[in-house]
Amino acid sequence: MDQITCEYIDRLVNIEMRFGQGLPRGVTHRLYDAARAAQGDVPLTFLAADGLRKALKRGDHVLVVTGAGTPPWLPKGETDGPPGAAAIARALEVGLGAKPVYVAEERNMGPVIASSEGIGLAVMAESDFAKRDGVAAASVFPLGKDAGAKEAARLFDRFAPKAVVFVEKAGPNSAGIFHSILGTGRTDDMMANAQEIAREAKARGVFSVGIGDGGNEIGFGKVAEAVRGIQPAGRVCKCPCGQGVATIVETDVLLSAAVSNWGAYGIAAALAALERRPEVLHSTADEDRMILACAAAGAFDGAYARQVPMVDGTSQAVQTSLITMLHEVVGNSLKSYQRGF
Ligand SMILES: [Zn+2]
């Protein structure tokens, strides 16, 4: 029964609404199909939610890693990423009693904290966070590969996380170069090298989930060859590395979605269904507060490249409509009703 619910959660979060021209179009269902085929043909939100439930006990730390976009184009990052991170952090806290730690570049942390506060999960200093439940902490991740490797090890030593979730977090390709979805290259000194967190998780046997919408985000290493065939810049990028945008960084579970935030909302909905508690998924009022707070804190819509409360070119109304529909899928799945004939 849970897998039926999650089947339609998967479909809801994979409805593509891209511009007719500009960014890659018609790729969402192909990336989803590739990710699904590579993971035993089971609904992907089910795989992620089920894995997180098994990995996390009350009081366990979970790293929630996000932050996309680079200055000067997207100076404080995108509206896709921070709200998804906040939604999954809230769901893991409300649903499982986990203690979320946000991890992002300093430039992106404002919108991450604003999103969390918008959805009703306060972010506290590490010392206070350790003393109580019902809150999150935030840890700035440095730019550059060496600093990233050092910080990844410190995070695992400090928090001993039992799970890691990456939301819209760029990963390098086979040449070690990060790329925008259209193939612009970005060297590792411009980026949080969060692949070091994925590497550390794998080395320490910590469960990991990657959520993305393009194939250049951490998690898509599981289907890198499919990404190379699906994305226009999949095989050949616009930078001297010439090896395309597909990342080679893998996670235990990959969730491909139309918008990364929606993938995170989908996992929150799946957790709500599995826990039989609809409130594990945030409300439409939470969503409205969160997206406004995220944009006000400096995040840009990545498709318009403007500081507006929209996500990948979709309106605020679409975000709340999606939450409405996810709640209906979950709520109805928990009902029993005989119509009498
Ligand atoms: Zn390149």
Task: Tell me the layout of helices and strands.
Blueprint: H1 2-12, H2 28-37, H3 44-55, E1 61-65, H4 82-96, E2 99-104, H5 106-119, H6 126-131, E3 137-140, H7 145-159, E4 163-167, E5 178-179, E6 185-186, H8 195-203, E7 207-212, H9 224-230, E8 253-256, H10 260-275, H11 284-296, H12 316-333
The structure holds zinc ion.
The site of zinc ion has 7 residues, from loops.
Features:
12 helices, six-stranded parallel beta sheet, 341 residues, single chain, binds zinc ion, two-stranded antiparallel sheet, globular
Description:
By secondary structure, the protein is an alpha/beta fold. Helix 9 (224-230) links the parallel strand 7 and strand 8. The protein has a single domain (2-333), classed as TON_0340 (inorganic pyrophosphatase (n-terminal core), Alpha-Beta Complex), CATH 3.90.1640.20. The model has no long low-confidence stretch (mean pLDDT 97). The protein is 43% helix and 10% strand. Zinc ion binds next to loops.
